Amino acid sequence: MKQPNCQYQFVFVSPEAVITDSFQSCLDTLSREKRLNMFVVDEAHCVDTWGKDFRPAYQQLGILRKYGLPFVALTGTATKQTMQTISVALQMANPEVLRLPCRRNNLCFTLVSKQETKAKDQVAQIVCSDFDGLCGIVYCARQADTIEMAFELKEKDVLVTYYHAGMEGGERIRNASSWLEDKVNVICCTNAFGMGIDKKGVRFVIHLTLPSSLEDYIQESGRGGRDGDYCSCVLLFRFGNRSFHLRNIASLPSNEANLSLLNSITDFCMQRSLCRQQFIAKYFEEELGDSCKCCDICHKDRIEEIKDFTLHAKNVIECLSQLRALQPKLKLTDLAMTYMGSKAKVIVTQGFHTVAQYGKEKEQFYNVSNITKFIQFLIFKGFINENIQGLEERMVMTYLTCGNVADLVDSRYQVLYSM
Fold it and tell me: What's the predicted TM-score (pTM) here?
């Protein structure tokens, strides 16, 4: 780059490399020789979503402002808060903002209830029955899952490869190239794959596990349908998968923002009354527009009626408080079964049947499944906290405590819910 006859006009570099002394020295030389023209930060949402903890170099890119050159930040997903974070971190005072709607009508979002076991077989069945012979991506949370998912698909004669950051560099390139060059139809990958990918003909994007944020989900789903044709975006959801992200969040020095992001995508998955595209538009503070007419919500026989569940929420919180006086390490199943008046041995032997809220509203919720979903709703709304205890690499235990309930108890907050 320092050579006078350098043939390169564009240099692509990671944030971690930008802030090194050697690269800064190179930029100083180019600046003195007036050979620098502009800085562009692509995928700028990472300044906010990754820059706080995972890759702090993103938030140090403001160091480039000292050269006094035009500065551009680009992203496909940014709330107003994220744009503010980008502006501050990159020292962009009063930037000109050009914004297009993030809605892409050729993407059809569907949520599928994830099986507790054999979820990979569930994905394989979806691929073989709905997308046989088509090009697609299966996103996985763990590196090991990419290999296991690829094996599951290969067993069903799907042309497939896998990709994750832990692979040797040459193997990563070969596997990615196989998919990009249409030698295989499907790639099973972690979120290490996809940034900057612009492949046409991707007809489906499946998420084996809940992503950590709605921003991540939109980024990853958006790698489908780049040619403008239809793409199906399928997300397998099970509330228990939150624990994978919660354990990661708990290890961070500051975790409130990350928990808020996780709760937003949980809301996206659990709500049953608003078109998926409209929910996304609302999250990114855009005009809702018409319903998409193709997502799972729009295809339901009826839209769920939203009702006032404030009193029910108060009763559940009171039940939780009473149970914790008997057993500090209280599980979600304990709370649900007690509230529904279960006579199971695990409830009776611990004395849970003696609390005032025992069997309080079983006529309202009908069964343990319905009250469990309502308790989960109260969790991601912040009224109930999940406390994570890791057992092994893939196993965690969660115990419940009361969350931020002051506004609820004092009737300053209305809980709206559809069952």
Answer: 0.85
